[in-house]
């Protein structure tokens, strides 16, 4: 490593050290569908709650069984931990009246933050009756919710173009959304360019980067294929030969995510949303590196 490169690394490390509590984090979980997965979920929540996240969100499926589990987990998190719990809510397979009923139930239960999404279309359905902006407007008409929406630095797979996707995000913000949380990504430049494009068309809401700590590269590669997320070749090389070595995969995944947040923090990013996949180890390690740590008694 040359002197100039070493100075760059030192500057990055110093920028992390100087954050000293300026960083805010949030965590995403999904509702468990077995007793063992429920135990894993609560172990992760207990491990991460000491980091005092801004909020924790819980994903939401289109079928009623998953929806009911989301409702239960959200209310349990609020009651058992005191954390701000934010349910995902989609407008697929639900009428406007049903959505209003769900929103009122959340509000009456003390839930004030919702992640509003269109949701995945069922097979054979070409065009939904409602989009994300419609759901945001419905929620804001029902109560003064704090609303997060989704953003796609590498363009939503169904979007006609990058510009139309950006304009759709602006419609969601204009409808009353408070912030956007991005799909996960690995090319930091892609996020930074996207943030600049948002600012250029008048989106002044915060664009929170979604960070996915990777522990299983093969699963990631399949998932990225239908979410339109580019997985750089260098990531393939880093994980090559580790299919049967979970511990090393974890170390590599944490290292990649730490590099992401180091660069983004130097670019002025102060909020990060972690897709935990209901596991706490990698997310906790990354937060520790960021300086997000339990307050000392």
UniProtKB/TrEMBL annotation:
Keywords: Amino-acid biosynthesis, FAD, Flavoprotein, Methionine biosynthesis, NAD, Oxidoreductase
Catalytic reactions of this protein: (6S)-5-methyl-5,6,7,8-tetrahydrofolate + NAD(+) = (6R)-5,10-methylene-5,6,7,8-tetrahydrofolate + NADH + H(+)
GO cellular component entries: cytosol
InterPro entries referenced in this protein's UniProt entry, alphabetically: FAD-linked_oxidoreductase-like, Mehydrof_redctse-like, MTHF_reductase_bac
Cited CDD domains: MTHFR
A Pfam entry, by short name: MTHFR
GO molecular function: FAD binding; methylenetetrahydrofolate reductase (NADH) activity
Keyword check for Flavoprotein: yes
Origin superkingdom: Bacteria
Pathway(s) it belongs to: One-carbon metabolism; tetrahydrofolate interconversion; Amino-acid biosynthesis; L-methionine biosynthesis via de novo pathway
GO biological process, one term: methionine biosynthetic process
EC numbers on record: 1.5.1.54
Cofactor (UniProt): FAD
NCBIfam families associated with the record: fadh2, PRK09432.1
Family: Belongs to the methylenetetrahydrofolate reductase family.
Record-given protein name: Methylenetetrahydrofolate reductase
Species: Aeromonas simiae
């Amino acid at each position: 490593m040359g002197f100039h490169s070493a100075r760059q690394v030192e500057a990055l490390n110093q920028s992390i050290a100087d954050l000293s509590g300026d960083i805010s984090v949030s965590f995403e979980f999904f509702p468990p569908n077995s007793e063992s997965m429920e135990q894993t979920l609560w172990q992760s929540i207990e491990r991460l709650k000491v980091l005092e996240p801004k909020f924790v969100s819980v994903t939401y499926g289109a079928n009623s069984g998953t929806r009911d589990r989301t409702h239960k987990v959200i209310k349990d998190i609020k009651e058992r931990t005191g954390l701000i719990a934010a349910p995902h809510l989609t407008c697929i397979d639900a009428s406007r009246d049903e959505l209003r009923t769900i929103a009122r139930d959340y509000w009456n239960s003390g839930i004030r933050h919702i992640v509003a999404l269109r949701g995945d279309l069922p097979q054979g359905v070409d065009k939904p009756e409602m989009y994300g902006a419609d759901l945001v407007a419905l929620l804001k008409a029902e109560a003064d919710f704090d609303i997060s929406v989704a953003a796609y630095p590498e363009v939503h797979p169904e979007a006609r173009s990058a510009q139309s996707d950006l304009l759709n995000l602006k419609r969601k913000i204009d409808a009353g959304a408070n912030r956007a949380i991005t799909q996960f990504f690995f090319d930091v430049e892609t996020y930074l360019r996207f943030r600049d494009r948002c600012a250029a068309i008048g989106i002044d809401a915060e664009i929170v980067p979604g960070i996915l700590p990777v522990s299983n590269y093969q699963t990631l590669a399949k998932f990225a294929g239908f979410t339109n997320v580019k997985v750089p070749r260098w990531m393939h090389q880093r994980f090559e030969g580790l299919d049967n070595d979970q511990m090393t995969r974890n170390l590599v995944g944490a290292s990649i995510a730490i590099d992401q947040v180091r660069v983004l923090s130097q670019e002025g990013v102060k909020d990060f949303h972690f897709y935990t996949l209901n596991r706490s180890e990698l997310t906790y390690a990354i937060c520790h590196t960021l300086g997000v740590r339990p307050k000392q008694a």
